[in-house]
Fold this protein.
Amino acid sequence: MAESGTPSERIAAELRRRIVAGELAPGARVPSTRRITQEWGVAMATATKVLNRLREEGLVRAVPGVGTVVVGAKAPGAGTALAKAAGVRSAGPQASGPQGSEAPGPVAPRTGTPGTSGASAAPGVRRARAGGDRELTRERIVATAVRVADAEGLAALSMRRVATDLGVATMSLYRHVPGKDELLRLMIDVAFGEQPLPQPPVSHWREGLEAIARLQWRIYRRHPWLASTMSFTRPVLAPDAALHTERSMAALSGLGLSWEEVAQASVALAAFVCGLAVHFEREAQAEQDSGLSADEWMERLGDEDHDRLMSDPERFPMFDAMNRGPELDLSLEALFEFGMARMLDGIEAVIERRRACGGVRAEGAADGRRVTGDR
């Protein structure tokens, strides 16, 4: 292994050598980030860079519930092409090259195209890509991108990575999707569209809003990366996502609220759900980096650390009193249930106040003008 380069480059080169030499066979698990930190004595961030580099090169992939494994190589010529690529990359610090450069070696295992060895491997890769290009559709591209983001997070997603998983040239994607921003928009729409809103709509406004909030929570849980892509100041034009706001506003119409109040209540509830759901991806990344679940992390924190930092009754009287009581449930699920109920309580209070004062002028709701109403 070359001694020059950054720690992450040197470790990646060593793992790359093990893969090429067959020490890590196709399907075998590569060292986790935690194992890398222990074996090489580096920080967790460095270990994460190592696995990200190998994934970008197409040498490994993440398998949910298993870990990061070596990509299978079925083509007879794949080993030679892979060794050639690895030999170039491990030559020195300059070998890592620009992340956007194309290298045929890592792609070969994914093609499954029979070849011979040595120089004949490259034409095999080109033929496989040409066939894959003809079958390429926008739907396949988006579905593959969603799978990558679900398994490894948005940090692992790139046009090149999607192309590698599909076994096609990166530039072929741009004939169907203009760029990553548009790809994300399509991914958002697919994520919201795969779990449709209840039909027919729930009649009571509170039950209707609760059903929508719970559906959004399930969608965010299923796709942990999704919440971090949402914006409530610069919303993405995703029709299936917009239907949620449309349904929420419909549930609140005719209750005496102004258009502004209807819109603000709908968006505020969605923003609450999304803001809490952002922690799904953060927790998944933290668990991957540390190898510990949230509960295991809290246990490892230990009573000694807690006592040292938080047990001063003069500085933290509320924490001190709370710690003397029963165990509290501050999980994401518990916070979601509490927060959603309180949001709906607040909307109900506004509705009752509007009813008590006769509501907003009917003509405002009829002609669609923004009406403020009494505050």
About this structure: Confidence is low (pLDDT under 50) at residues 73-131, 361-375.
